[in-house]
């Protein structure tokens, strides 16, 4: 049996030119130069430092160019964004709506609410606010909506979502394309009290979102995902989410509304004389503004608590068979 030359074996170099022999030589040179009294304890660390001196990391990748907002371009040599001609035409088309001819509730008067947003240090600029207001009026006329409200704006990695909340007849709501074991709340009830329209900007075409399902509500509370701004984008996550980003967005809107939308405690009451289910809400006859509105007890959530089944109301009880007892309601 022929034994390979040990010197040749230790001198075999890698692609970067480093061999066991050259590494040991550099390691010994480093020890002699430093004369560290704790060289034995630090031998592994010193060896790694010698190896690191030969490491050439890959050149840093070019910085990703940020995605421009829809309807804008960046002229060469300038840092300012310029609206495109198409965006100008779409924004100009909004001005065909005459605000005086569209009747809206006070909560939809977005220009009047702008100062309150500014006091809180949030909100939109004056131009975007007015365009959003005109878009709300256009949606109200186009779909014969009963009421509209600016819900908010969610930022995405590619595009953003401007969200308009609308109280609409049942036939305007889009039913979910896929329903699980638990039926969703009907239009006008619970988490589907309102329907929602979204667009990348007020000058873009608004898209109506489907009503939310209990499965989407429950699963959206178990995952955390950035919005991309693409409604058809898949929601890649574990556990799997039942639907594209449009459904995930709608579920998060429902959860945000259920948690944050408030009204003064005692200002409204259920109409006990009505036989409708759920009972309609009316103004309370005896209501006085509390002295301290900063007290948490002066406010209540508009929506009911989200139950463990992903709804704020229990589904209709199935008629029990003969001899069976009615199922208890979910808490």
From TrEMBL:
Region annotation (Disordered) ranges: 310-331
Record's compositionally biased regions (Acidic residues): 321-331
Protein localization: Cytoplasm, Cytoskeleton, Cilium axoneme
GO terms under biological process: axoneme assembly; cilium movement involved in cell motility
InterPro entries: Radial_spoke
Keyword terms, alphabetized: Cell projection, Cilium, Cytoplasm, Cytoskeleton
Gene Ontology CC annotations of this record: radial spoke
Main location (coarse class): cytoplasm
Protein name as annotated: Uncharacterized protein
Species: Haptolina brevifila
């Amino acid at each position: 049996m022929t034994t390979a030359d040990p010197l040749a074996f230790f001198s075999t170099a890698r692609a970067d030119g480093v061999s066991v022999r050259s590494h040991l030589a550099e390691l010994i040179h480093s020890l002699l130069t430093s004369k560290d009294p704790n060289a034995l304890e630090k031998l592994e660390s010193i060896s790694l430092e010698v190896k690191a001196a030969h490491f050439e990391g890959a050149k840093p990748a070019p910085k990703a160019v940020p995605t421009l907002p829809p309807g804008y371009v960046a002229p060469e040599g300038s840092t300012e964004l310029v609206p495109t001609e198409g965006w100008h035409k779409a924004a100009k088309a909004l001005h065909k709506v005459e605000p005086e001819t569209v009747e809206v509730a006070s909560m939809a008067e977005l220009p009047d609410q702008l100062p309150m947003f500014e006091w809180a240090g949030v909100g939109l600029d004056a131009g975007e606010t007015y365009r959003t207001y005109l878009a709300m009026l256009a949606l109200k006329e186009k779909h014969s909506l009963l009421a509209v409200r600016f819900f908010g704006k969610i930022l995405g990695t590619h595009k953003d979502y401007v969200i308009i909340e609308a109280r609409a007849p049942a036939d305007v709501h889009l039913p979910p394309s896929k329903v699980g074991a638990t039926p969703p709340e009907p239009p006008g009830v619970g988490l589907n009290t309102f329907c929602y329209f979204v667009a990348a900007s007020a000058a873009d075409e608004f898209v109506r979102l489907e009503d939310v399902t209990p499965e989407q509500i429950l699963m959206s509370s178990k995952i955390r995902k950035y919005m991309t701004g693409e409604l058809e984008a898949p929601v890649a996550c574990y556990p799997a989410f039942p639907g594209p980003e449009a459904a995930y967005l709608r579920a998060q809107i429902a959860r945000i509304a259920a948690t944050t939308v408030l009204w003064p405690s005692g200002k409204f009451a259920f109409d006990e004389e009505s036989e409708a289910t759920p009972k309609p809400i009316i103004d309370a006859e005896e209501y006085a503004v509390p002295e301290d509105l900063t007290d948490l007890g002066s406010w209540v959530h508009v929506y009911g608590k989200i139950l463990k089944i992903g709804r704020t109301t229990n589904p209709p009880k199935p008629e029990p068979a003969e001899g069976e007892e009615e199922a208890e309601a979910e808490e």
